[in-house]
Model the fold of this input.
Amino acid sequence: MKRLLFTGLAAAIVLTGCQKSDTISEMKSAENHDHMGGRQCVSMEILQQQLQEDPSLQSRMDEIERNLETNQNLMKIGRLVNGVYEIPVWVNVLYRTTAENISQTQIQSQIDVLNEDFGGTNTDNTLVPSTFTGLKAGNCNVRFVLQGITRKATTKTSWRTDNSCKSSSKGGISPTSPTIYMNLWVCTLAGGVLGYAQFPGGSSATDGVVILNTGFGRTGTAAAPFNKGRTATHEVGHWLNLRHIWGDATCGSDLVTDTPTHNTANYGCPATGHRSTCTGTPIEMTMNYMDYTDDRCMYMFSTGQKSRMLATFATGGGRTTFAQP
Done:
């Protein structure tokens, strides 16, 4: 059974040997050298840097984890908010070329993907193998609504993962009302990074999700193998407090009990039935949105992940301001 609390001690262990850096994309690119062209998300690296910069962040995240267990128990007896949580979305487009100034059609296609994936209506949901059909989340009771778009021309050829794209004073776009809108930034990212997100508990000044413009939506500039909008599904999962399914460590924990323990990230489109060498040699859930597989090969959340995400909307969960009765 996977551990449910991410303690300060665990964070300290994760941070050992990590140095503060504003070149996270370069670090991640080097780390994944054997998987060039594969999915690269630096949300955990960003988190580690933020923990170093803000010592109080760990205590806030620990409190969210403590509340999460309580909120999950409340949800089991039907005391969490009923119905659907509507998340207003504000999209920030940073562009240098005409192609980078993606169309509203492409933006809406990404909103549609989020609603399909979090609503369990994605057509490839039927591909989930029998091993995991009983664990499919189905409808996560979260709906995303496009609220507005801000566009800004820039002379930058690419943006690093130092959150400068989220600051108007650094040439980017500052977030719009981040306590009531989920802000999405779409831009050209350096170092082969597809995207990153901020976990609950971080500063509102940098809260939101950043996505590479060629990995955003499923039309326009979206390019295979990341042309089905699943990068945003993955990153919004982080925004709602989900970890990578392998726990960012060999046989690590993603803090969810019903996902199998993975050796590490999976890339491309692995054959179903691939087994981990971790304790119990479980079959890995490579089609889970929180793995690193290609867009066409990820198509499910687990019921445990659904519970963890919904718990963020309850009191003390980190996304309470987005709760809609």
